[in-house]
Amino acid sequence: MACSIDLNDQTAMSQTRSALDLLKQFTTVVADTGRFDLMAQYQPQDATTNPSLILKAVGTPGGESLMKAVLKQAGTAHPSEQRVLDLLVAFGCEILRIIPGRVSTEVDARLSFDTEATIRQAMAIVQAYVRAGVDPKRVLIKIASTWEGIAAAKQLEREGVACNLTLLFSMAQAMACADAGVTLISPFVGRISDWAKAKGQTWDSADQDPGVQSVQRIFQVYKSQGIQTQIMGASFRNMAQVMALAGCDLLTVSPELLTELAAQPAAEDFVPALVAGQTTERASPLTESAFRFDLNQDAMASEKLAEGIRLFYADGEKLKGLLAS
Q: 164, 185 in Cβ contact below 8 A?
């Protein structure tokens, strides 16, 4: 009788296990949001933010009250750029009270082509966290994967500041980041897929998705060459893309997809498709001229990088306007 009860309990447990639970077995799940309630609900290891996510989050009760507290403390003494930085760090501090791992905080998109200015703002962000009592090891500085941004990250990493290189769409960017010794890269799956669809491409399964294939290629090259830089797939459009990259170092997932994954029963026969050591491709570090030429020859990567910088800049300006008003 006791054995029968144990078996039934095990069956019940397997029936309630979700796709999100399954995913967490193979990869580190990161919350792609600035909302505190959702982080508490889904318990991710890390969290990543950007101006667009913070702009959405300040419209929630917790985000709005935090913004008012930042404005009250800053008063009229801080210029608009400093107020935005104060707000980003305040969100990061609150997030770190919820999650056990790291939070990514982004440098102003206007600095994407200015190495020295990126370094100065990155150090200012780290110092703001330190003043707030946060261990800098729990902070990743998020920088666009331009040549100038990667050069800034190389210097920052030498000084002990961990970096997350975002808006990454190509192998040229990935190899330049690896050569710079950055801690983490964020290849954007969904935006690559969006570009391909706009050009008329179609596919029948997630493993044929150009965005998924881009991350798979980077993963295989990194792992076969022993590159230590972590890969965090980002910008997902559906659950199939997420599960196709199970086994990646990290995946940053929106609240909407986390909800879907939590509601989806786990496939108990699931085997991750992403396994290291499946390529003989060798990619080498690039000189600046080779990097710029390769990026120029990749229409998708060059267009999506430029578009991403414009969008982050626009949302950063909206944040400034909101704080000023």
A: yes
